[in-house]
Amino acid sequence: MAVRAVRAVFLPYLRVARDEHRAGQLATSPFWWRFSQRLWRRAVMTLEETIAAILDQRLAPLRVDLQRVAGALEALRSALPPALVPLKEAAKRMHVSEKTARRRVRAGEWPARRDGKLVLVDLAALRPLTEEEVFSAARRAISA
Fold it and tell me: In the chain, what are the domain boundaries?
């Protein structure tokens, strides 16, 4: 964005210098022309910089809206009661066996509550593991 401002400031001066140079009115025109051309080349943005500047400018309001919506969503999530489902259903939704689900509840990886003999798992707190988490777990298993 600073490059655009520099270009906007010097552009009128460069045009005047170019016109004076063409008309032969500037006594020191070769020096001034070379200097102004070097200055202009430094101020010119590459295509990638131009596209990035335009995208930043256009996406800024959307980023603000997205942050506002994310905050509102997090507030709603914290206000809602937990979505408790039986262990068997939680295992199906997380694509693991029931035995693995019980192991994860016992290890404390999954938040769960007991209602008599029924084990209820909080689905809102569950999510599939990311690739990084799987990689780190595999690394820990190999090193142990």
Answer: 2-79, 84-143
Helix or strand or coil: residue 133? Answer: helix
In 3D, which of 31, 45, 33, 34 has the Cα closest to residue 2? 45
Residue 58, classed as helix, strand or coil, is helix
In terms of pLDDT, which residue wins out, 127 or 41? 127
State which of 17-26, 70-79, 100-109, 133-142 shows the largest mean pLDDT.
100-109
Rounded to an integer, what distance in angstroms lies between the CA atom of residue 90 and that of residue 5?
A: 56
Which residue from 103, 122, 3 is spatially nearest to 56, judged by alpha carbons?
3
Interior/surface letters 39-64, b for 16+ CB within 10 angstroms, e for the rest: ebeebeeeeeeeeeeeeeeeeeeeee
List all residues 6 or more positions away from 84 whose beta carbon is below 8 Å from its beta carbon. Answer: 113, 120, 121, 122, 123
- List helix spans (H) across 1-144: 2-23, 29-43, 47-79, 87-93, 98-107, 131-143
